[in-house]
Amino acid sequence: MPKMPLSIRPAAVADLPALCAWNAAMARETEGLALDPAVLERGVRGVFEQPQRGFYLVAERDGAALGGLLVTFEWSDWRAGDYWWIQSVYVVPEARRDGVFRALYAEVERRARAAGAASLRLYVETENRRAQSTYERLGMRRCHYAMYEQVL
């Protein structure tokens, strides 16, 4: 029996429990981190409370949420446009390798082009070769920047 098609929609506050669960699972899987649930909920809720921070998208099939991602914005004075950063990508394990991220990415790309974004960007764990391969198949290329951070 053929699968129902995927649909991509903007996340709503009602998706907050799923978004928090997905973020916690992604942090555990990719970095071995246990996120503080209260801080995580405030962080996810903060996107809904201040939409200039970004937006979440959710992928569904037959009414079941299968994954999502966050898009945030960074102004580039060099390009006089926003870089759209793809973050907090998560696809439930049973739906992986089934086009969920591809569909989410296509919707982000469509929205970014319509908004006149300068580029799409994301960061990925250096050891996550599977994700890197996926991003390259979608047309993304490794850039020449290394990331530094000072946690405050």
From TrEMBL:
It comes from the Bacteria. Pfam families: Acetyltransf_1. InterPro entries: Acyl_CoA_acyltransferase (IPR016181), Bact_Acetyltransf (IPR050832), GNAT_dom (IPR000182). The keyword Transmembrane does not apply. Keywords: Acyltransferase, Transferase. SUPFAM superfamilies: Acyl-CoA N-acyltransferases (Nat) (SSF55729). PANTHER family: AMINOALKYLPHOSPHONATE N-ACETYLTRANSFERASE-RELATED (PTHR43877:SF2), AMINOALKYLPHOSPHONATE N-ACETYLTRANSFERASE-RELATED-RELATED (PTHR43877). This is N-acetyltransferase family protein.
